[in-house]
Predict the structure.
Amino acid sequence: MDRYRLTRNFALLALVVMALATFFLWALQQRQSDAQLSDLASRNNVALSQTVVNQLWPRYVDYIVTAARRDPAKIRGAAWTSALLADVRRLLAGTRARKIKLFDLNGYTAFSSDRSEIGDDLGNDPRFLAARAGGVVSRSQFREEMAGLGGVMRNRWVLSTFVPVRTKGSGGVAGVVEIYSDINALHDRIAATNRDLALITAAAFAAVFAVLVAIIWYADRRIRRQHHENLRMARTVARADAASQAKSTFLANMSHELRTPLNAVIGFAEMIESAVYGPVGNPRYKEYAGDIKTAGRHLLSIINDVLDLVKVEEGQVALRVEATDLALLLTEAIKLCRPDADTAGIVIEHRNLTELPTVLTDAGKLKQILVNLLANAIRYTPEGEVVVIEAAVDAREPLVRISVIDRGPGIPREDIPTALAPFGRLRPIDGNDGGLGLGLPLSRQFAELLDGSLRIEREGDLGTRITLELPLPVAATGAAVPSAKGDS
């Protein structure tokens, strides 16, 4: 049952709300129907009362206004009472009127079609007082038994109306008439109509209730299914985060542990190569020492890249922003990569590097990006080809674009995400294993740390263009920041 708690709770709440709404609508309809019935019957009673008053009041007014001074028993048996009752029955024959009373201004019952009520005093009755003041007051009631013009009535709905009797001359109130009408048929008809409306309303609400419960039940299933899926994904993500954290921690620890002995290996290789403590017995040992130094530096570079990547992923990289001469920085990056290019038989060609602004950036991170891009271009460019580095300032953005273009086979569009992913390695070229796949991912992350971006595009049929875009401060486009080169 707990599985369907939402559906159950909604169903109970909706059932209560709709039951209350149905009851209130039925009560409102009942009230309006009763009011309409009362108004209709009341107007009919007023019309009948006016007929009786117009026809009979002038003839019997003297008896009515002086009745209070007579014995009620004598009035019940008086000839004028019988004559008035006969006239009333004649006038009201064929109508719904079932009983009539005539009162003087003090509330004394001078005449009633039920003779037993002659002599009753209604002087303090609120309805009588309201009619004497000129108003018309009606009230419907259920009578188990009532003496009417046509005999005794049982279990009937009747409407009694108090109507003032006005004189023709002055228009003042001379007495009060109370007339009873049989509204049982109308009441039953309206009650039946109200029941039908209540049933229709209840059926409509029941249909809406069923639809809403079905919707909530379906939504409940979807929510629970999605909740379980989210929990499963959260557990998967938590495991992945834990594994990633463990990997990062392992790589960081491994990098620190390897750097110390590796620096020692490189140092000893440099000492042997330089023959610090005297000549080496065999010249080939000196050559081997140089190979050891080169391989050690390469391995140290890889370890440093891994460590940098771990720091970036853990958000531990701190930027050192300073005024940087962009042209000088590009020249230094080219000098660092030129020996590898010369060894591979590749020419590094530079364009538009003389009129570049001084920018505010982290020079070390930017130089590492440029060296990585140039080294990557050299690695994938065949012997005898050219690697081009060019730079341009877009004052509209404002930003600076630095592009490195190689003439290698190019990176297919579908392989670009692999090239930008950590440890993503492309296919080997001419025996080149392509490295560990750290240069481009690390360059992209450094570019993003500098609020820039790295974009890879095909360059014609052959080659790749990698563009680094860095935002310029407003002062940089106007070269307002002092140059790092001074006045040279």
Observations:
- The chain has eleven helices and twelve strands.
- The longest helix spans residues 184-274.
- Confidence is low (pLDDT under 50) at residues 474-488.
- Residues 82 and 216 are 74 Å apart (CA to CA).
